[in-house]
Amino acid sequence: THSQTPSPLYHLSHLPSVRSPPVAYTFPNKMSHPYEMYSFMHWINSSMATSFLCSLQEELDIRPKVSSFLSRLVNYTNITQGAREHEEEESANVSRKKAPKAPNMGTLMGVYLPCLQNIFGVILFLRLTWIVGTAGIAQSLIIVFMCCSCTMLTAISMSAIATNGVVPAGGAYFMISRSLGPEFGGAVGLCFYLGTTFAAAMYILGAIEIFLKYLLPQAAIFHASGPHGGDSAMLNNMRVYGTLCLSLMALVVFVGVKYVNKLASLFLACVIISIFSIYAGAIKSITHPPEFTVCMLGNRTLERDLFDVCSKTVVVGNETVPSQLWRSFCPEGNVSSAQCDDYFSQNNLTEIPAIPGLASGIISDNMWGDYMQKNDVMEKAGLSSVDAKGPAESIGMYVTADIATSFTLLVGIFFPSATGIMAGSNRSGDLRDAQKSIPVGTILAITTTSLVYFSSVVLFGACIEGVVLRDKFGDAVNKNLVVGTLSWPSPWVIVIGSFFSTVGAGLQSLTGAPRLLQAIAKDNIIPFLRVFGHGKANGEPTWALLLTGVIAELGILIASLDMVAPILSMFFLMCYLFVNLACAVQTLLRTPNWRPRFKYYHWALSFLGMIMCVALMFISSWYYAIVAMGIAGLIYKYIEYQGAEKEWGDGIRGLSLSAARYALLRLEVGPPHTKNWRPQLLVLLKMDEDLHVKYPRLLTFASQLKAGKGLTIVGSVIQGNFLESYGETQASEQAIKNMMEIERVKGFCQVVVASKVRDGIAHLIQSCGLGGMKHNTVVMGWPYGWRQSEDPRAWKTFINTVRCTTAAHLALMVPKNVSFYPSNHERFSDGNIDVWWIVHDGGMLMLLPFLLKQHKVWRKCNMRIFTVAQMDDNSIQMKKDLATFLYQLRIEAEVEVVEMHDSDISAYTYERTLMMEQRSQMLRQMRLSSAERDREVSSGRSFTFYMVLGDIATFQCDFALPSPTEKVHMTWTKEKCEAERRNHTNAPENFRELISLKPDQSNVRRMHTAVKLNEVIVNRSHDARLVLLNMPGPPRDTGGDENYMEFLEVLTEGLERVLLVRGGGREVITIYS
Description:
- With 1073 residues, the chain is of the alpha/beta class.
- It contains 33 helices and 17 strands.
- The protein is elongated, with a radius of gyration of 45 Å.
- This is Solute carrier family 12 member 4.
């Protein structure tokens, strides 16, 4: 193989710098008065300023002055959520409208309190006591630490992104999409939308649970039909009331969001009051614990609302009678204990305090967990009991577990109580200083809520009895809310406060989710969501609200808070995962635009946040995690397939650049191994006068050869001056890109402007590509009509390109009759691809048919390889050797050896060579200047040559002279006219010299070879779908270039589709694995 010579460097000539003419100032001789000095200096300064601005007048016409640019930045108004960054020019009547109110919200009201309201929610009041009782204090602290650490790390990453420039109102979706690109932005934005929508369903289910369990149990429509029918009845009640509540909330949001915003302060006050009542009750329990008791039968917990007193018998008057509890365990009318439930008969009833208090030492009993299966009875480990079986009917008297519990389940249920950290960034449009308020307010809110959760876990475990903690719905304390039994001054404070807080959180979610969907739809990255970008005249997202209500209804139909919570945990964790990824990518890439004001971030923290998000997803529910990732992946591929034409300066583009740079540096180490060689194409296209691609089938052939793999560079040359032809260059590039898209060619386009086409092609061959990612094969079209063209530059450019590729050690492919090549929509159901292997060229002729057959157009064609045997060759052995070689190459093809015997040169060959040389001589004589040619035409003199190379008898030459009597109108002098007539007289003598020309013997031999080889090829491959054969090299002497073109024409005559191939001087195929 030949080593590639380095491309010579071409230095750009420096343009002369444009300087302003010097300003001459005349100093006065005397300046006695200070005012004169001041006036003179003022004149000097103003003159210099005017001269300076005049020198930049052309720049000021297309670019803004610094003062106007800074004024626009200062008067920046935050655009609406999801709107494009570059808005259209405002209409004339906008100036008459009322000016928008400037954002004036600070850290406290704009970020801290909204984050508190969104983070504190239904889980704190309805499920945290149950989590503590089930997992124990130690594991509950681990759960809280994992979830809060994940959100804290995400908040750090989010703060870095939010402070990296002005963040228009758009929240997490805006940050992710502008940091990671439209594909990730759309996928994560929809996940965030689904999470917010299911959060609305969860809050509504929580509100309905509080309403039906603790506020108004009599409102239940469905009732239990048996001891195990309570759960299904409750689920049906939740579905009915949840649907009604969702419809009512959606109506409120539809009527006006301003009502929701006005009630937000009330809902936040309910949350804060409820939390303070818990702390007050815990402190009060040190000295005066609440008077709630739990009735225990042995060590089993009884449902307190099913009987009046915790005793087997009661005294009525002076008589001892069975209690209501006795009648529940024993058949009615039977006083004998022998007929009662065995467990009831053998165990005693005891009452223990439900809230022993902070000083009771119950914390040691609640330190470790007690995970249960569904329908397991709540038991207290410290109480003695006699184990005995009872009838199944008695199970309804005990407090039982409604679901099977595990550590992973509790993580998924608790995590939604740590979400809501995006509330501050969602309000970035209303903040006075978003870059300062978002980090401070968000991190302070997470710190506050984390401390509340940690302290609540410890207080619940230190104050409340373990069986009560594990009692999810408060059945053991007469169906009171468990956390309400600890609160002060009354359990109703927690019940009412939690109800209003969950209703408010549901309204907030139903308000935010449609706007998020509208933002995604308005960005127009997901076409089928475009309809949801429209809304009412004031911009309210009506259609998005409708879709949100439908999706939230799906969550309502699930009807279980414990099943909905892990679903929204998945979607929120997906969102947080990509927030951390965005920060990590931007930090590691060190893009120039990455300059966040928040300095307390690090890529390691972002990666740790990513790891925690993924871990929490699979800990919570591995199958939900796979579904969520699958949804995000499908959305990503859909946006990528649709081709989201958005350029947001995202980090993924920067990551691609870094990866490309790394890969290019690796490729630069050395040339590729033969096993990795594949044709990296430089396709040379010719543009017509209208700047359209003249032969688009060249691109079709390139796409079929590449099948979407490897490098393809499409180049073209425009003749002219670059400064004057820049517009044509842009138009040509766009036309080529459009044609590449039509022909499905994945690659790059490069158009150069040169004074000569041959120089431009030489520049393309030398400079296209980058580093190790350079072309190794050139594809160019055949110069059709070169015989008829008076301008020899077309075929001279073709031959010069052949020489350039040879000098650069590049392979060359010339598809002849390319207009007959199949399009990408055609299919060959049969036929052959014939390879005529005359000279070994490194295996290009073997590899190209194999690559073409990978495409659906050529897939069903058979491959045939022909080789030529001379007189002294053993054709039988050649066929065996070639078959063995193809077998080792793993290429299936038929092998044929064609014997070509030396024969005498025929008269046809001699005459054709003579015609070729006569034509060359005639063209040299006919290359006159334009002025002389005009004179020849005006004088009536004409040459007409008719040459049909297939038949020498049709060759004739017409030579006409004007008659002596014919008047010629010209403005010549008499001397010039006589000289012209002498030229006319000498012309026949020149023609006679042309006729007496004898052909060169070397040309005769070359023509003989071309004619004989063409006869064999046409005889064997006249019906082939494609013929590939070696392309002879051009002669070293440029004087025989025209003869070289004639040899190629003779070689390929009579063939419909021919691909001339010239190797690059290195092996491209190998038998080794």
